[in-house]
Amino acid sequence: MRIGIGYDIHPLVKGRKLILGGVTIPFEKGLKGHSDADALYHAVTDALLGAIGNGDIGTYFSDTDPRWKGKDSAFFLTETMSLVEKGGYRVANVDTILILEEPRLSPYKCQMIENLARLLKIKPDDVNVKAKTNEKLGAIGRGEGIAAQAVVLLEKR
Ligand code: MG
To answer: Which residue from 69, 86, 92, 121 has the fewest beta carbons nearer than 10 Å?
Structure first.
């Protein structure tokens, strides 16, 4: 088995869609980034790359590469999953945390879990998405951004 950890953070700004775990969430602001800035997908992508010892998301999908401008981050996960499979592994389970003050994510968690399960080729029971506030502390506490953490476990196919 192999384990990997991932982390991501993006600033919240006006004039962008808020996309987390592949779900477009109605909110007055969205995450700023080169791609669609889906911090949850990015954290899970980094956790997968970590587990197979293959660097990080920037190694493969540089934020200066025009090919990835506005890109659906599901693409990064799909590409990374093919590296995982080529390495002879499959995902056992994934656990994640989203850290944000607003908006409330409970209505969207099920869809995020379904999206991750489909992309990672596992059952929804093997995906966990947690959301918590930063108790109003620091930049996240002031609503200036959203962070995500992920841990994945891989097993030999
Ligand atoms: Mg990112």
So the answer is: 86
Query: 82 C-alpha vs ligand 1 centroid, how far in Å?
Result: 20
Cβ partners under 8 Å of residue 19, min gap 6? 25, 30, 31, 36, 37, 38, 73
Decide if 96 contacts 150 (C-beta within 8 A).
yes
pLDDT 10s digits, 84-125: 999 999 999 999 999 999 999 999 999 999 999 999 999 999
DSSP string, 13-79: EETS-EEETTEEE--SEEE-SSS---HHHHHHHHHHHHHTT---HHHHS-TT-GGGTT--THHHHHH
At 19-69, the pLDDT tens digits run 999 999 999 999 999 999 999 999 999 999 999 999 999 999 999 999 999
The Cα–Cα gap between 140 and 136 comes to 7
- By residue count, the chain amounts to 157
Span from the CA of 71 to the centroid of ligand 1 (angstroms): 11
pLDDT at position 24, please?
Answer: 98
Taking the centre of ligand 1 as the mean of its atom positions, its distance from the CA of residue 34, in whole angstroms, is 8
Strands 2-14 and 29-31, by their bridges, are antiparallel
